[in-house]
Design brief:
About 70% of the residues lie in helices and about 5% in strands. It is mainly alpha-helical. The chain has a two-stranded antiparallel ribbon.
Length: about 100
């Protein structure tokens, strides 16, 4: 299934359950943060099934958040990509990204 199809199904699901009309961007943002906590926990435990579930839950919350803000999640990703696409550098083993100075 394509991303657009999944996104539409999530929005339809959220509308049918009154999440879209009765929720708020703040509520969906807090829910996404909560789901990120579950993702962190699953990652620490190396629980692949829980990781997949948690990533999906975060994405559902972000789709709902964007629907409530009347913005498109893919557009947000494109803006972020446009900002990073020309960055040069290397992620060091300690987790620090060292930018190349040009």
């Amino acid at each position: 299934m394509s991303y657009a199809n999944v996104e539409m199904k999530i929005i339809q699901w959220a509308e049918a359950r009154k999440i879209i009309p009765n929720s708020s961007p703040e509520t969906q943002l807090l829910k996404a943060v909560s789901e990120m906590g579950e993702l962190a926990d699953a990652t620490i435990k190396n629980d692949k099934e829980a990781i997949v579930d948690s990533v999906g839950d975060v994405m559902v919350c972000l789709v709902n958040y964007c629907a409530l803000q009347d913005i498109n999640l893919v557009d947000c990703m494109e803006v972020a990509y446009d900002q990073i696409k020309n960055r040069r550098g290397t992620l060091l083993p300690n987790g620090v990204f060292k930018k190349d100075i040009t």
